Amino acid sequence: MNRVSSTQAAVGTRFPLYADSISGEWTTTSRGSWTGGFWAGLLWLRASASGRHEHRNAAAETTQRLADWATSDTSTRGLILWYGTALATRRGEDSRASALRESAARQCRSDFDHNLRVLPWGSAFGGPRLLARVDGIPGLVPLLATDKDPRGADIAREHLSTHLHLWRTTPIGTPAWAWSDGTWLPSPQPQRGWSRGRAWLLLALADACRYLSPEFLFDACALLDADQLLVPTAENHPDAPPDTSAAAIEAVALLKLAAAQTRTARSAAMRLRATEITRRLATDFMSGPGAPQPGGRLGGGCYDFGRGLATNHELIWGNFFFAAALAIQTGLIAPFDT
Question: Which of 157, 165, 228, 232 is the most buried (most CB within 10 A)?
Answer without folding.
Answer: 232
